[in-house]
Amino acid sequence: MKTLAIIALLGTAQAHYTFPGLIYNGVTEADWTYVRKTTNYQSHGPVTDVTSSQIRCYELEPGSNGAKTKEVKAGDTVGFRVDTEIGHPGPLAFYMAKAPSGQTAETFNGDGAVWFKIYEDGPTFGEEITWPSTGLKEVSVKIPTCLAEGYYLLRVEHIALHSAGSTGGAQFYQACAQLHVTGGGSKTFSGVSLPGAYKASDPGILFQLYWPKPTSYTNPGPAVVKC
Prior knowledge:
The protein is mostly beta strands. The protein has helices at 2-13, 54-57, and strands spanning 18-24, 27-28, 70-73, 77-83, 92-98, 115-120, 124-125, 129-130, 138-142, 150-160, 171-182. The protein has two helices and eleven strands. It is globular. A five-stranded mixed beta sheet has the order 3-11-10-5-6. The relative contact order is 0.23.
């Protein structure tokens, strides 16, 4: 038990991370060119209050972030560079939100029940619990092929669970890229609000990672959408 406690304490002191650079067609763009600059761009620290407006895009200056919009094709893979790497155990997810008529990705603030999940991962349970995203320096997702053309925010989220055994201990790292999606179908999706989709007591957020040893995990938030 002492060893487990030491591991948990060390985890809080080790590297935090950001998602500053968009990756598309093999090109990693300069930091914050197409990604809204996050409040933790220097500290790399997390959001721990799921009711905070920062849980959405973690924006440093909402409404005046200066990011541009990247044109991508439905069905293509879009990624984020991780600075420096995902250094904590926990799930990775991607959400999207479509800007309403008359707005662009640059003017859309993401208000309302507009966020739909397009990807989530989970752990493998064995002698040790392993997470697919641990140690990654890049993360990526396929844009749904059926998605209607339009302006979107693409939100990456990683939840670090090393201190999640007490309320408010889970650490959220997220960022939003600005996209214009072309070449898709006509599908639109209903969604959830951020903040609003998560509660501090959700089983995937209030989670004892070390002891007693878990045998299952429930991702927080909505189910992944399907075309």
